[in-house]
Structure formats: C-alpha cells, structure tokens
Amino acid sequence: MDPLNFKKQSIGFRGAFIVMYNEINAFFSNLGGLISMTMQPILFFAFLVMGLNSTTNNFNYHGIIISYASYASIGVVGLIMTTQMSQAVYRSTVDKQFGLMAIKFMNGVRPFQYILGMSVFPIFGYLYQCLILYLLLIVFKIKGLVVLFPIAILVGIIMLLFWSSLGIICSCLFKNYQQRDIFIQLVFTPIAFTAPSFYLDGHGPLYLKILANINPMTYQLRALRSIIYRIPDITTIITSLLLTILVVILTAFLLDKIQLTLQEKI
C-alpha cells in the first residue's frame, strides 16, 4: 500500500491534536529521558557556567555590565534547544522507520499538523529544562535574568520550532538508525558550541566568527539576550522568527513529497 495516495485527506486540526496527545504520553512515560533532561541543565550551569563565572570578571555587553553567569545562562538555553532537536530527530525517525508516519498521513494528518504535533515532545522537554535552569538562577541569585527570563523562554518556543522542524527534515533523509546516530553525534555539539553560547559574541579567532555568523543559533541567542537585557534588537528577533517560518514551510513541503511505506526498515 502506498500512503502517498492518501496524503490529500485531512481531518483538520484534530490531526495535530491526535499527534500531540501521543507525544505527550510518550514524554511522560520516558522516565530515563526525564532523568537525563533533569541533569543536563544542572550540570551545565553548576559546573560549566558557575565554574567559569568564578574566574571571569563582569564585562560590557551592548552598554550593559553583566556577569559571565548571566551571559552564559542563555547559552545553556541554546544547548537545551539542540538537545530537544535530537528528540525530534529520534521521535520522527522512529515514526518513519516503523511506518507510523505513513499511518498518520493515511488517517488524515497533514504535514503542517504533523510538524506541530511532533514538536510537542521537544517543547515539553524545553520548558521542563528551562524551568530547572530558572530555579537555579533564583537559587544562585543571578542578577538581571529572573524578571524577563520567562518571557524570553516563551519566545524561544517559536525558535525551537526551527530546530524541531529541521530535525524532522533530517530524519526523513536517514535510511537507518546508524545514519541518525552519526548525525546526532557530529552535528549537535558543533551547532551549540560554535554559536556564542559560552564565549563573548563577536570575539574569538576568525574561523569562530565565520562559523558563528552562519549558525542560526547565533541569531537566536542574540535575540533572546536582547529581550532579557531590555535592549531589543528587532532586526535579529524578526530574522530568527522568519528562519523558523521558512524551515517549517520547507519541512511541510518535503513531508508532502516524501515516499512513505508501512514496512519497517532497520
């Protein structure tokens, strides 16, 4: 049976809610994943951010004197986004390999609804990890972040759609789990660390500046920091949101064209 013949069917936004419901159940039933998501922001903040903060003086960021901990905490948010992109890759790869993606499309779920539904797992993980990070900011009394941090995180949900959509695109290109695992290992860490997550934006060797300027995460971190430090960079914020819209549209287009089968492939 070729599910491509059924892709024109639609059950409306009920399709998105069905996928969302399945992803919410998957999120709360994934105990090992929840433990890992709990530890990640704690380890990065307590040992990396606070460790470097103790050896780094306050510095000027766009006319505002801030601590390194305040600056790098937003970098942890960037790491959280890439982590949740890996969840999108994993979840959609399982869907594709075991024929679940085909079944969903056969039953009237449209590509855009599928993207929204499959983004729920990463969004829940993102909010959970950011909540832990927010509590750490309060406990360690990191000044300048507590008030506007929640607003920036809500804006970050839209940016996260960029990464979850990109993860779905990548999963559609994988032929097996080995390709998926290699991709995760080789791509996610460079994305997080070539962006100005833990080093001062605009500084560093030339190669790092070049890599940062072609990294979408760079513009997202700049946008989030501009919100938190009350120096809104409208151009950067709009650029980040437009990138999300473009990738979501591209993902929906590719999902509409991809060849799907109900046969499991290992």
3D architecture notes:
The chain crosses the membrane at residues 27-49, 61-81, 114-140, 146-170, 182-200, 234-255. With 266 residues, this protein is mainly alpha-helical. The chain has one domain (3-257). It has helices at residues 14-29, 31-53, 68-97, 100-106, 111-118, 120-139, 149-173, 177-194, 206-213, 216-228, 234-257; strands spanning 59-61, 64-66. Helix 1 (14-29) packs across helix 6 (120-139) and helix 3 runs antiparallel to helix 6 (120-139).
Secondary structure: number of strands: 2
CA-based shape? elongated
Order of helices and strands: HHEEHHHHHHHHH
Task: Please tell me the overall pLDDT.
Answer: 86
Helix/strand-derived category reads mainly alpha
- Sheet having the most strands: 2 strands, antiparallel
Percent range for β-strand residues: under 5%
Task: Return Rg in Å.
Answer: 19 Å
Low-confidence stretches: none
**N- to C-terminal distance:** 19 Å
Number of helices: 11
Amount of helix: over 70%
Number of domains: 1
User: What is the strand arrangement across the widest sheet?
Assistant: 1-2
Briefly characterize the structure.
It is built from eleven helices and two strands, in the order H-H-E-E-H-H-H-H-H-H-H-H-H.
